TrEMBL record:
InterPro entries: DUF1254, DUF1254_sf. It comes from the Bacteria. This is DUF1254 domain-containing protein. Transmembrane segments: none annotated. Pfam families: DUF1254. Residues 60-103 form the DUF1254 domain.
Length: 103
C-alpha cells in the first residue's frame, strides 16, 4: 500500500475507483457516439449504411482501431416502426462480424 493511499478514507478510495469505473464503462457509449456523429457528418442518416472506402490507420480516432478490417457502420431509428436487417451469408474467406445494439 502506498503512503498516500493510507491517508485516504474509505469513501475517498471508493470515489476514486468509481470514477475509474465510470470512465471505463463510458468508452463503448462514446465510441458509438463517435461513429454515429461521423456518419451524420458524412451525410449518412439513420437506417442507412456507411462504409469506409479504405482500411484505416493510426489516425482513425476510435477506441479499438483495426487496420486490417473494412468498417461498415449504421445506426437505426425505430421511431416509425420496426426495421429488418438482411445480411448476406458468409463465404469462404469472407465474413461479417458485428453487433446490433439498442443505444
Amino acid at each position: 500500500m502506498l503512503a498516500e493511499d493510507a491517508k485516504q478514507t474509505i469513501g475517498e478510495r471508493m470515489l476514486h475507483h468509481r470514477a475509474i469505473d465510470a470512465a471505463v464503462w463510458a468508452m463503448p457509449l462514446m465510441n458509438f457516439k463517435f461513429y454515429r456523429d461521423a456518419l451524420a457528418d458524412a451525410g449518412v442518416g439513420p437506417n442507412d449504411v456507411g462504409d469506409y472506402s479504405k482500411l484505416q490507420d493510426w489516425k482513425f480516432q476510435t477506441a479499438t482501431p483495426n487496420n486490417t478490417t473494412p468498417y461498415i457502420l449504421s445506426y437505426w431509428n425505430l421511431k416509425d416502426g420496426p426495421i429488418v436487417v438482411e445480411m448476406p451469408a458468409s463465404v469462404e474467406g469472407v465474413g461479417v462480424f458485428g453487433t446490433i445494439m439498442d443505444a
